[in-house]
Amino acid sequence: MPNPDDGGSRGRGISRRSFLQSALGTTMIDAASGILDDAKAAESVGTPASGPGPVPVTLKVNGLERTLQLEPRVTLAEALRGPLGLTGTKIGCDRAECGACTVLIDDVPHYSCSTLTHTVRNKKVVTVEGLQSADGTLHPVQQGILEEQGFQCAFCMSGFIMATVGFLKTNPSPTRAELAHGISGNLCRCQDYDKILTALMRGAELSRGTSNA
Asked: What is the mean pLDDT of residues 2-17?
């Protein structure tokens, strides 16, 4: 009975197993050689093979300018939560799907987890901390959530707030369906969307100054 490892190659001087072992060995040697060559080339021009280090990045966040030393790969969410200490911006999925990290960049909602920090130079960044007035007065959208108790665990809340504030800048008097569509890029694990929408619609009402309260 033929050996299943020989691949029908008995009598031809090489088995399938021998061929695969030889091919694998050659591939690994070539890959290792390439890595060593790249490292030597980097050393020859005096640059590290690991990539660029921190560079100065000046940001305007919540009306204040800050200059940070950041590697080009650092996302805006990481910069906000790390060196700037603005932990109101949450990182949920970290892949631009849930919206928990939403901030405003020049008044437009963006996922900060998928925005490189150096790309927002000379742009106005607003986080949930920047919505409150200097005297401590809450933004109308924040007040609406407080009045209607619109969230359960509230981990996703800041993202919904920022998405709503951005949407209201383009449509200050939305219907419930329009607002639901406008913030559809934000997800809630608790899934109490009806209550969330009620709170956000209350925030929209307060933003227009039409509250009877």
From this structure: 56
Q: How far apart are the first and last CA of the chain?
A: 90
Q: What does the pLDDT look like over 52-86, one tens digit per residue?
A: 799 999 999 999 999 999 999 999 999 999 999 99
Residue type for position 27: T
| pLDDT at res. 35 | 47
Token reading at 177? 């369906």
Strands 124-126 and 108-111: unpaired
Q: Which CATH class is domain 55-208?
A: alpha beta
How buried is 213 (Cβ within 10 angstroms: 0-12 exposed, 13-18 middle, 19+ buried)?
exposed
What number of H helices and E strands is found in the chain?
Answer: 6, 5
